[in-house]
Amino acid sequence: MELYFADPDNIHDSHATFDAFESQHILKTKRKKLGDLLNFTDGEGHFFEGIIVALKPALKVEYHLKEKNLSSDFKLTLAVGFIRQQRIDFFIEKGTELGIDRFYLFASNNTNYYTENTSRWQKIARQAIKQSLRYYLPSISTIISFKDLLEKSSAYNNKFIALQNSTNTMMDIIRDQSFKSGEDILFVIGPEGGFESFEIDLALKNNFIPITFGKYRLRTETAVLTAASYINLLRT
Amino acid sequence: MELYFADPDNIHDSHATFDAFESQHILKTKRKKLGDLLNFTDGEGHFFEGIIVALKPALKVEYHLKEKNLSSDFKLTLAVGFIRQQRIDFFIEKGTELGIDRFYLFASNNTNYYTENTSRWQKIARQAIKQSLRYYLPSISTIISFKDLLEKSSAYNNKFIALQNSTNTMMDIIRDQSFKSGEDILFVIGPEGGFESFEIDLALKNNFIPITFGKYRLRTETAVLTAASYINLLRT
After folding, report:
1. Measured between CB atoms, does A222 come within 8 Å of chain B?
2. Which residue of chain B is at minimal alpha-carbon distance from A93?
3. pLDDT mean for each 10 residues of chain A (236 residues)
4. I need a labelling partner for B202 at 20 to 30 A (CA). Which of A89, A160, B27, B171 fits?
5. What region, left, alpha or beta, does residue B9 occupy, with left being phi > 0 and alpha being psi -120 to 50 degrees?
6. ipTM, 2 dp
7. B95 — contact with chain A (CB < 8 Å)?
8. pTM here?
C-alpha cells in the first residue's frame, strides 16, 4: 500500500488538499491522475481513502472512507541530548518508524551541539509514518535545559535514564514489569559527552530508573533505536 | 577511553604499525606525540596498550600489554538483501556497534540494487568497533543468490527469517528459547521488495523460523537494527 499525508488543517467537508511537496510526489513521481484512488493519513490517527477530483490550483481529493486507528496502548517518549544534525535526522526517521510517539531534544551540561530545526524534523517524521504505514505523527520539540526536562518528566508513570554503568538491564524490566495500558514511558538518553554526576543525582531524585543497554559504548542515536526496539517488544 | 585499530598483519615482535588513515587520525586530529600512551585493537579480540616509539616512515607503537577478550557467547549473523548504498553503510555502522558478528549481503528475486564495496564497509565497521569499544571486527561478505544463502544457513543452529505476516514475535522467542553458548544465530532480512512466496517456501523447508517485528512496515535497515537489539537483550 502507498500512503500519503495531508495536513489536518487542510481536510474538511469530505475533501483534502495536499501541499506542494506531497502533490509533486503524488503527481510527478507516482504519476497519479484525475480520478485515481489515493490513501492518506492526517497524522492524527485517521486513514482516508478517496479519489483525486482536482489537480489545480492544488491537488484535491474527495474521500469516501475515514477510519480512526487507535494509538498504541502506551505512549513512548524519547528525550535525547542534542547531537550533530545528521544524527538527529537519523534517529527521528528511524525512531518514527519504530513507533516513538514524542521526541524531546534537550541541552545538558555536556551538550556540544545545538540546533532548532523542528520543521525539518517534522518533514522527516512525516515521510517515516508514510513509509511504515503509521497514522500518528510524533510530536517533536526542544527543551533548553535538563532541569526543564526533569519538570516535564513528572507527567510520566515510567521513567528511565540510560546509564552504561547501571546494573538494571532492559531484560529485567521486561521480565518484572508490565506497563499498563495508558501509562506513559519516558526514556532519557544523554548527549555524546554523557551526563554529569549532579545530573544523574537529580534524575534519581526524580524517580528515574537507571538502565544499561550493555557494556559497549553506544552512540546516542543508536541507544535511541535500541530503546524503541525494546519497547516494541512489549507492544507486539 | 580512546581505542585505535591496527591491522593484525602489522602487529609482531611487540610492535604495531598503523596505516595512513589511522596515523593521520592519531597524530593530526588527536595530536598524539612520541612517547604517548595508545590503546588499540586488532579486531581479532585483542586489546593492546603501548607507547608511540616512531612517527616515520609509519606510526609505530611498542606494546607492553596484550589482553585477549572473549567473543560473545553466541554469534549473530545478519543476512540482508541488497539495498541502497547509503542504507547499507548505515546498518553496517549501527549493526557493528550493536554487536553483529557477521554480515552477508545477498541478492534475491526482488533485489533492485547491487553494490560490492567490501573495503568501504570494512572501514566503516572498523570505525564502529573503535567507537563502541569492541575488539572483534565483523566479517562482511556478499552472496550472489538466495539459494547460496540457504546453503550457508545449514551451518546455523538458530535460523530466523523476518516476515511481517508471521505470528511468531521476538517476545515468544525470548520467552521460550534460550540460545546455548556457542550456538550461532542467523537472521535473514529481505530487500525492499520483500521475498517471493517461492523464496519463503524454500526458507521454511530449510528450517527457518518466520518471525514478525510487528504490524508496521520497517525499512530493511531498521529491521536489521531491531534484530540486533533483540539479540542483545539475550546477551546482557
Report:
1. yes
2. B222
3. 95 96 94 97 97 95 94 88 94 96 94 89 96 96 92 94 90 75 89 92 96 91 94 80
4. B171
5. alpha
6. 0.88
7. no
8. 0.91
